[in-house]
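DEPOSITED CHAIN:
***
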Amino acid sequence: MKPALLLLLACMAAQADDAISPDRPDFTNGPDVMAAGRFQIETSGAWQRNRADGQATRLRSTPTLLRLGLGHDLELRLESEGALRQRHPDGSGRADLSLGAKWRMQGGGEGRPSLGWIATVQTPSGSGPFKGRGLRPALSLLAQWELPAGYSLGTMAGVVTDRNDDGRRYTAGVLSASLGLPLGERLRGFAELAGQQLASRRDGGHVVTAGAGLAWPLTDDAQIDTAVFRGLNRDTPDWAWTLGLSLRF
């Protein structure tokens, strides 16, 4: 058999053994990227509830992430919270689009973490009360360690710029850690602590959550998941829940 054919078959076998690795349902993104020419959709329904001043506010959304592998450990990303509907105060609309790229700069192994970067920019492309103000860039460093017995630890640290209700631009921090838990032959869980936004009170305050969830790969190219998040302070919604599906092509 010719060497070129052997190499092609080896690459196909390696690709087949490579299970899907979505960036959900936890908040912490991993450094894994899509293989060149492969496309992935990660979509879900999400529900959020918060009670303040004796009134309950509910928000329903459809978070969706599209990922396209370009090769050289690089992928393009298109992300949005999708269609949103809020109750008390009532409102509906379309969320802003975020454009970005992820680069895996180091593979893991032998106690060494996988490392990567995500750079994104949110655009004022939404509608109704959900349209943001101007372009909002963000940059995050990602790290993941493979631990004994099938456990893993992922961390994410970054900065994001936005505008507050007065239109003044500010910079906020992002810091999170997620522990991956093996729960069976295919079922996996996670427990997470996430500072989704670390900012002053006038800029929205600290948005901090504790989360837990499950992910179940149906095949090497399909996964379903669910997660629940609890807000840890008064600047964070009380509860959030998500149910999602990821497909790789």
